[in-house]
Write a structure and sequence with these properties.
The chain is α/β, with parallel strands linked by helices and 334 residues long. Helix content is 36%, strand content 20%.
C-alpha cells in the first residue's frame, strides 16, 4: 500500500470544479471513480500525518526535526522559531512563503547571533538549517499556529492571554533588531526579501514509544518533521522521489507538499500546473502499477482547513469498470 499525503489539494467544491474543468486528469478521475472516497472534517497536515503514523497530535515538530537533523533531543521541550517575512498587503500582514527567503548559512548564523540575547529568557536559540531555527525552552510555552497553516495568509496577532505576554515582548524586540540588521540591509539593497519576524510553532518534547504500532515501513518527504518521525519509528526516511517508483514495495508514506504554497496564496495558475505535475509524476504511474500488479493499493489523504478527504483504491477496485470517472469537485461536499 502506497500512502500519499497531499496538502493543498482541497478547495471549495465550486473552486475545484472551475479550476479543473479543462485539465486532462485521466488517472486522478479514474481513481476517484473506482476507489472509495471518505469526506472528513477539516484537519491540518500535521494532524493527518500524526494519524497516519500512529502518533498523538499535535506533533512536537521542533523536537522531531531536531531528531532528524541533529541527534536525539532528550527530555527537553523545544519550539520551532523560524525566520519569516511579513509582507504588508491591502491593510494586512501576510506571512510570506518561508521558502522565498533562501537564507544562506552565514546570514542565518549572523541573524540568530544578534537575536539570541533577546530570546535568552525564553530559551536557547539553535540554527538547524538556514530556514529552520529551534528554541530549547527554559520553561513551557503556549500553543502557536503552525507555520504551514499561516503561510500565505494574514498574520493573526497573538492572543491577549498573560501566557503570551513574554512572547509578544520578545517578538517585538526581535523585529526591531531585524529591521536594523546589516544582513537585512544588504538583502534589501540586493532586492532580496528580508527577515522581519520570527514564527513560533510546533512546541513539545519527543514522545517515548515503548512498542510503536508501525503502519508504514518508509517515509518519503523533504520535511524534516516527517523525517524525524521516520527516525523515531525506526523506519527508513528518505527525500521525496521525483515521482512514484515503478514498484513501491512494502508500505511507504509520501508527503507531497508541492500544491500547498499556491493553495495558501490562492495562485490558481501555479496550482493547476502543480496538479498536472502531480498527476503525471505520481497518480498516472500509481494507476499503472495497480493495473500491472506492482502495487497492491493506493491511499491518498488530502488535509485542508475547509475540509479533508481520503481515497483508497485497491487492485480489486479497478475491476469495477461500471464506475465512471469522477471530477475533483467530488472531494468535498460544499
Amino acid at each position: 500500500m502506497l500512502t500519499l499525503i497531499v496538502p493543498g489539494l482541497i478547495w471549495t467544491r465550486q473552486a475545484l470544479a472551475d479550476l479543473t474543468c479543462d485539465l486532462p486528469l485521466p488517472a486522478f478521475t479514474t481513481l476517484l471513480g473506482r476507489g472509495r472516497l471518505s469526506r472528513r472534517p477539516a484537519r491540518d497536515t500535521t494532524t493527518m500525518l500524526a494519524e497516519a503514523t500512529g502518533l498523538a497530535a499535535p506533533l512536537p515538530a521542533a523536537a522531531l526535526r531536531w531528531f532528524a537533523l541533529r541527534d536525539h533531543p532528550g527530555a527537553a521541550d523545544w519550539l520551532c522559531l523560524d525566520p519569516v517575512r511579513l509582507n504588508f498587503q491591502e491593510r494586512s500582514l501576510i506571512v510570506d512563503d518561508p521558502q522565498h527567503l533562501k537564507l544562506s548559512d552565514a546570514e542565518a548564523a549572523a541573524l540568530a547571533a544578534a537575536l539570541a540575547p533577546t530570546l535568552a529568557a525564553l530559551g536557547e536559540l539553535e540554527v538547524l538549517a538556514p530556514g529552520h531555527w529551534n528554541l530549547r525552552l527554559s520553561a513551557g510555552a503556549p500553543t502557536f499556529q503552525a507555520l504551514s497553516e499561516a503561510a500565505g495568509r494574514s498574520a493573526a496577532p497573538l492572543p491577549p492571554d498573560a501566557a503570551y505576554a513574554p512572547w509578544r515582548q520578545a517578538l517585538n524586540e526581535a523585529q526591531m533588531i531585524l529591521h536594523a540588521h546589516p544582513v537585512n540591509q544588504a538583502r534589501q539593497a540586493a532586492g532580496q526579501p528580508v527577515v522581519n519576524s520570527l514564527w513560533p510553532w510546533g512546541g513539545g518534547r519527543l514522545p517515548a514509544l515503548a512498542a510503536p504500532d508501525i503502519a508504514h515501513d518508509a517515509i518519503w518527504s523533504n520535511d524534516p518533521v516527517a523525517r524525524g518521525i521516520a527516525r523515531l519509528l525506526q523506519i527508513d526516511g528518505a527525500a521525496l522521489p521525483a515521482g512514484c517508483p515503478a514498484s513501491a514495495a512494502g508500505a511507504p508514506l509520501a508527503v507531497i507538499d508541492s500544491l500547498e504554497p499556491s493553495a495558501g496564496t490562492g495562485d490558481a495558475i501555479v496550482w493547476r500546473d502543480e496538479l498536472t505535475r502531480f498527476e503525471a509524476a505520481w497518480l498516472a504511474p500509481a494507476l499503472d502499477a495497480l493495473r500491472r500488479g506492482r502495487l497492491d493499493g493506493l491511499r491518498l489523504i488530502a488535509p485542508g482547513d475547509l475540509a479533508a478527504a481520503e481515497l483508497q483504491v485497491s487492485r480489486r477496485d479497478l475491476w469495477k469498470f461500471w464506475r465512471k470517472p469522477r471530477g475533483l469537485a467530488e472531494l468535498v461536499t460544499t
